[in-house]
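Q: For a teaching handout, I want to show students what a protein-ligand complex looks like in token form. Below are the inputs, and the small molecule is iron/sulfur cluster. Please produce the holo structure.
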Amino acid sequence: MPRIGIEFNNVCNLDCAHCFRSIYRGGAENNKDLFLPLDVLEKILIEAKPLGYAHVAITGGEPPMHPRFGEALDIIAEHGYSYHFLTNARNFQKTLKAVSAQPLRRAKLAGISFSLDGATEATHDKIRGKGSYREVVTAIAMCQALGIEASIITTINKANRHEIDQLALLGAHLKVKRQIFGHQNPTEHNLGADLILPLSEWRAVERDVARVMTGFRHDISMAVGFYTDYYLPRCAPLTHDDLNIDYRGRLTLCCQLSNYRDGDKDGEDVVGDLKKESLAVALGKLMNLVNKVHRERLAMAADPRQKEKLHYPCLVCIERFGKTSGEPMLVQMTGAERRRDRETER
Ligand SMILES: C[S@@+](CC[C@H](N)C(=O)[O-])C[C@H]1O[C@@H](n2cnc3c(N)ncnc32)[C@H](O)[C@@H]1O
Ligand code: SF4
Ligand code: SF4
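A: Here is the structure, written as tokens, with iron/sulfur cluster included.
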């Protein structure tokens, strides 16, 4: 189903070690530009409707921290869209109150996705902070009791790689509808925290996820970014099945590249400002960019020195859109591994 991904804000109440966003963590009161204005949200929804979009995927930041979270959900629901949102589950009682406050708001809620980054409290809290694991597990149980469809998203890294089976078991135990595993995209920060698995281990992770996919009743899948032999990626952003609007109301290529932690300026992935231009005009620019990306990958596929990189399409994007402040990310990943190997040998 084609979806509009919308970042409600750029603030968060956690400081996860792996997070790829450049999140502002100060007080929100004096920083109103960190929250998507609701008139911009409404404009986008009106303009996307005739194109057939009918579902909104809400992300952030931490979406429920938008000071007008409930009103934003009303606008989405009143324009006939269903929605789901992604959350870290902090202050979930308050979030539940917000989604339940209006019947239409509640009726259009398709589900809630929770980020769970460990099968054990120790692993999850190491990445997300003390107390977070209990909050997530309790929140999922609350959804279960209220008939709200819950899903889990896990980002695989060095700290939780050994817990894939346990995570799937936990997903089954919590009776979630869907569970998605994804590779952790590298940032200079999470490389420094030694969380990124060497690229040589990524396929083994994918095999472990593939194994649990068939062993459980709930739907288990791997998020885009896994190894592929298709050199022209068919991910949702590159087919316009997923649009991404950042918290400033700009159309960007992909939520995975948006407001990237290491980037100090906007990349070419930010294509249009929907406060100033129509979605149709901005989409025209996005189509040109998508075409350009495919042409570049075609050229890379013909270049023996570049070709191998294409197996991991998101890593190519991180490099292509300049999401690092220093050396290209693949060079940094290899360098970090070599340094660690040398240290272990000593
Ligand atoms: C940026 S968060 C926003 C929503 C909310 N704050 C949360 O954590 O669920 C969206 C998703 O991106 C994931 N994420 C963060 N950093 C990532 C990285 N480096 N690579 C892949 N996914 C990442 C998070 O774990 C979360 O599931
Ligand atoms: S992953 Fe989500 S909860 Fe964690 S810091 Fe990033 S935005 Fe906040
Ligand atoms: S980072 Fe690039 S390849 Fe990955 S999902 Fe986004 S647009 Fe597609």
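A: Two things your students might notice: The pocket of S-adenosylmethionine (ligand 1) is lined by residues 12, 18-21, 59-60, 62, 86-88, 115, 153, 155, 182, 184-185, 187, 190 (CB under 6 Å). DSSP finds twelve helices and ten strands in the chain.
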